[in-house]
């Protein structure tokens, strides 16, 4: 079974994510410290949204007194359903956090019906 | 799970591996046991957030502390040294939920954090540099000159 830690020979790191939503959009925030715009690739293929992040920081040289950080590349895939407008996805990377905004299609938004 | 398989595997001599291999083993064992369950969809269960991860690296000239601090701004960060104790304190902020915006999934932590590290006695705490970029904090503390690697010529009588 393929899992997101060991994809073939390449070991990747799944970024921690926080997802929020309201009636108009879905907001996903992924923690990817060390990634800059150049090392970031976001793709939508069918109903799959993939995020790949390459770290730009090098592994330091010397003797590790404490080693807790992982240094693999980031990989995350989301399945997005029909209610999301594929053309309405925007992304912003700041302070090691990638913020994705996915617009909900007009047809999928709740409608208010006024009673006359 | 096949118990005999587990027992026989335990007898194998440990190969050269890093710490993370052990976690990957645990994870794949977990996945075998709960076959079919999409673990990537419940990443938060295994990746319990316990505060910022750090590296402390010693080279000939300096001690380098690296901390993963995504979502932390410079103004929300405090670095201090007292004696040989280095403290990194701060607050991590992400976009906040509201009355209409609900959190549907969270694998991360927000709020204040503090991490304290004991530096080796060879450091010169007057020479400290800190830089926060792309969610990574780098603190360099120089070593005292007399503690840097040097060659002493000893004359033999």
Q: How would you describe the overall organization of this protein?
A:
The complex is a heterodimer of chains A (116) and B (157). In chain A, 0% of the residues lie in helices and 59% in strands. The model of chain A has no long low-confidence stretch (mean pLDDT 87). In chain A, the strands form two sheets. A five-stranded mixed β-sheet of chain A has the order 1-2-8-6-5, with no helix packed on it. Chain A has a four-stranded antiparallel β-sheet with strand order 3-4-10-9, with no helix packed on it. Chain A has strands spanning 6-7, 10-13, 17-21, 25-31, 35-45, 48-55, 63-67, 73-79, 84-94, 97-104. Chain A has a single domain, classed as Immunoglobulin-like. The radius of gyration of chain A is 18 Å and the shape is elongated. Chain B is an alpha+beta fold and 157 residues long. Chain B has two domains: 3-46, no CATH class; 54-96 and 103-146, Immunoglobulin-like (Sandwich), CATH 2.60.40.790. Helices cover 17% and strands 37% of the residues of chain B.
State the secondary-structure class of chain A.
mainly beta
Order of helices and strands of chain A: EEEEEEEEEE
Strand proportion of chain B, as a percent range, falls in 35-45%
User: How large is the count of helical segments of chain B?
Assistant: 3
* Sheet of most strands of chain B: 4 strands, antiparallel
Stretches with pLDDT under 50, minimum 5 residues of chain B: 5-12, 38-49
Strand order of the largest sheet of chain A: 1-2-8-6-5
Q: Radius of gyration of chain B, Cα only, in angstroms?
A: 23 Å
CATH topology of chain A: Immunoglobulin-like
- Helical residues, percent of chain B: 10-25%
Run of helices and strands of chain B: HHHEEEEEEEE
